[in-house]
TrEMBL record:
One Pfam family cited in the UniProt record for this chain: NUDIX
GO molecular function: hydrolase activity
Name assigned to this protein: GDP-mannose pyrophosphatase
Catalysed reaction, written as an equation: GDP-alpha-D-mannose + H2O = alpha-D-mannose 1-phosphate + GMP + 2 H(+)
Family classification: Belongs to the Nudix hydrolase family. NudK subfamily.
UniProt source species: Massilia cavernae
Source organism, top-level taxon: Bacteria
InterPro entries in UniProt: NUDIX_hydrolase-like_dom_sf, NUDIX_hydrolase_CS, NUDIX_hydrolase_dom
């Protein structure tokens, strides 16, 4: 049964076709029968890795993000390639960005980080049993890796030093997982 809130696509077009992002412009029918337009970013999806060392410390990255003109503290993450399995993507991104591989992987959840203007989704994974290696950053990618504890990360969230939504949600998940109050799906 359809939701009484459902909007139905009538037709549409690609408004912008970039190397990384595409913007769609659709004509839709609203629940009251009227027509309007929706513009949104088409995104292939991404993964977020929550790398946890045996001592409980967490591996993080510091990276400059051009749209906001400043550095951000983030979990390793990356875009899913066409046809790529999400776990394979998580393993690839962890190694490329940090050099680490992991012996244990656990899917946590899927989040939708920009529902008003994008179809992007992020699959979060915890990675444990970390083994150090050599990073293989993409051309034009620059970042610094460092470690922190979950309590330190919660303090950075509270103070505004961490504002990246995937990192905030991942930190809250880690806190609940580590203290045993949440178990993944």
């Amino acid at each position: 049964m359809d939701s009484p809130l459902k909007e139905t696509r009538i037709d549409g077009e690609v408004a912008f076709d970039g190397r990384f992002l595409k913007v769609a412009r659709d004509r839709i029918r609203l629940p009251d029968g009227k027509e309007t337009n929706r513009e949104y970013i088409k995104h292939p999806g991404a993964v977020v890795i929550l790398p946890v060392f045996d001592d409980g410390r967490v591996l993080l990255e510091r990276q400059f993000r051009y749209p906001l003109g400043r550095e951000f503290v983030e979990f390793p993450a990356g875009k899913i390639d066409p046809g790529e399995d999400t776990l394979a993507c998580a393993k690839r991104e962890l190694q490329e960005e940090t050099g680490y591989t992991a012996k244990e992987w656990q899917f946590i959840c899927t989040i939708h980080n920009a529902i008003a203007y994008s179809d992007e989704h992020l699959d979060l994974f915890v990675a444990r049993g970390l083994v150090e290696g050599e990073a293989k950053l993409d051309e034009g990618e620059f970042l610094e890796c460092f470690t922190s504890t979950v309590p330190e990360m919660l303090g950075m969230i509270k103070s505004g030093a961490i504002t990246d939504v995937k990192t905030i949600i991942g930190t809250f998940w880690l806190e609940k997982l580590m203290n045993g109050t949440w178990k993944p799906g």
